Amino acid sequence: MHCIKKIKDDLIWVGANDRRLAMFEGVYSVPAGVSYNSYLLTDEKTVLFDTVDKAVRERFLENLAEALNGRALDYLIVQHMEPDHSAAIQDLIVLYPNLKIVCNEKTLQFIKQFYDFDTGGRVNIVKENDTLQTGKHNLHFIMAPMVHWPEVMLTYDSTDKILFSADAFGCFGALNGAIYADEVDFAKDYLNEARRYYSNIVGKYGTQVEALLGKTSALTIETICPLHGFVWRKNLNDIVSKYALWSRYEPEEQGVMIAYASVYGNTENAAEILASRLRDKGVKTQMFDVSVIPASEIVAAAFRWSHLVFASTTYNAGIFVTMEALISDLTAHNIQNRSVAIIENGSWAATSGDLIRSHLEKCKNIRFIENMISLKSGLKTVQLSEIDTMAAAIAAGLNITSGKSQSAGGPAAQNMIEQAAFFKLSYGLFVLSAKDGDKDNGCIVNTVTQITASPLRISVAVNKANFTRDMILKTGEFNVSILTESAPFRIFENFGFHSGRDTDKFAPPYAYDTRAANGLRYVPEHTNAMISAKVAESLNYETHTLFIADVTQAIVISGERSVTYQYYFDNIKPKPQPPKEDKKGFVCKICAYVYEGEKLPADFICPLCKHGPEDFEKI
Ligand code: FEO
Known about the structure:
Layout: E1 5-8, E2 11-13, E3 16-18, E4 23-24, E5 28-29, E6 34-36, E7 39-42, E8 46-49, H1 57-68, E9 75-77, H2 83-86, H3 89-95, E10 100-103, H4 105-114, E11 123-125, E12 131-133, E13 138-143, E14 153-157, E15 162-166, H5 186-202, H6 206-216, E16 223-226, H7 237-247, E17 253-261, H8 266-280, E18 285-289, H9 295-304, E19 305-315, E20 318-319, H10 321-332, E21 338-345, H11 352-360, E22 366-368, E23 373-375, H12 384-396, E24 406-408, E25 430-436, E26 439-445, E27 448-453, E28 456-463, H13 467-475, E29 477-483, H14 489-496, E30 514-516, E31 527-541, E32 544-556, H15 565-572, E33 585-588, E34 594-596, E35 616-618
Helix pairs in contact: 5-9, 6-7, 8-12, 9-10
MU-OXO-diiron (FEO) binds near residues 80, 84 and 228.
């Protein structure tokens, strides 16, 4: 008996679920099953988007016949030739002899490789931006090579604003009677399956996924129909934003994944103690025994967390087998942009740590937390301090939310420099904070630059009217919090449009109890990195003081994008209201303050943001 789902009046899901499959692609466990989605558009022409796996072929053909309701099938659009979506093509040729196949050149090559039927006169080749009018609907083809095979293409229905997304935005897990992501608790029950699907199936191809997201961002999309998992009709950004992070290999969460391989429990014990120490510091942890948990779970977790710890015994003079398989899987999936700590064990000749490091060194932007821990059989009391040091170094790189006073590093972390923090610097906007006695203060600056790597120095230019500048001149220390695109205008107002001489910038709701190792506050939200520095030189440049400073600490806070000056003006700063017709004056381009009058005094300083006449324009 058929089992179909209506998505629109003329769009029907004709796919099927498989809960008996043990291993998807022979390697990824799917305990919650998997769906193979196929969609039928019943316009003036009937159009099918892909077929299904051979395991559910019979149900699919029954579903299709029901949805067609006696009509013939005019077009089959083949978006992806992997056999879990193309196993029924030959059946369709037999059942619907006049069927036309719509695909690209590469797909045709694969059809000929997988099948022996004569394709002559049956195939419409399409390329990027080609369209197919099926009656009311206008279908546009978007090439997406390597998301996940080279022939993959997507179809955009500009009539109903539907993106048929092939493997993109898919998810493991059978649909269990639902069809829309908003019918289930997706974040709780399916997000990890979506992450596991992404990281394991297309994780290697982040660049290609990013390119595809660039193309689809120009479209108005109301519905996403992927080949696995749920249809998205609400909150599309829930899945699209995850893809944006995953494709850039940016972590979703600040926290630690600990994967360990332990033969007799001693390596496991060290990993447990480290996790316990991290939790004491308010750090989120997730642990995996790599000998028990399928690698696909651990690869997905590595895409989720910012920090990775690998603890492995030495085995046959190398890495323990299951850990070796995991490391090889992670490097094959292009893991990047992570902080990594390593614990090795070896009763007579430990080698696993250096070997793990040598594999991961081939991945991009992996920051190793120094002082790998090397155990000889088991952790001894004298080595507990090494675990503490490792926990402190990890915690220093995290934005911890323990509820207690949070510190970006205890004594062991005071020299912690995460190089990735400097990759966040742009012509952006920053909170520059300082402390003089009991007084904490901060202001907004837009020029922070790394000037040398050795010694590691940055420069910061600050308007002389800023109280923070006076405090730094006096104390010689400051922190820079790098703001992100999520920063709301109120943060710029709080730190940028008032003076610390008569305002407490860190009063609620900005009473952040986060301090760097130098004891100065920093901003832990809507920021992606924090840099502490000690002034080496102060240079006087008319309106500004330029501080040249030695970096003492640098931590990555999040994977969000840094806000640029341009982004701030385009997307965050409220647009100035059109002036009343008879109003004469000048408006500040920075904060929109309006000076009323015929002439702006040459020495005028904006009372809100402290910028001079050069940043005002005539109304
Ligand atoms: Fe479900 Fe790449 O296919």
